[in-house]
Amino acid sequence: MSIFFMFGKYTKESAREISAERTKRAVEVINRLGGEVKSMYSLLGEHDLIFIVDLPDMKNALKVSVALNQLTGINFSTSPVVNVDEFDKMINELKEM
User: What is the mean predicted confidence (pLDDT) over 32-37?
Assistant: First the structure.
């Protein structure tokens, strides 16, 4: 499994439909596609939402991003992430080459 950050931006239409029920359905979609929501936050600034999700792979991340857009009308930008400890190990491996 891999962690992905999903940055969401409301459209006028999707903002009108904000509800706890829609959020619940979004989590269900993520679960059905093999993922697990680690956390979800509302933001101020460039993005309106961030979902931190654990997904099997990039293919499932793409499916989740499209499925959530179809369900909610929210536009998502999805990015894979690596924790800093793992990143440091990767860089050390480069130095050993």
Answer: 97
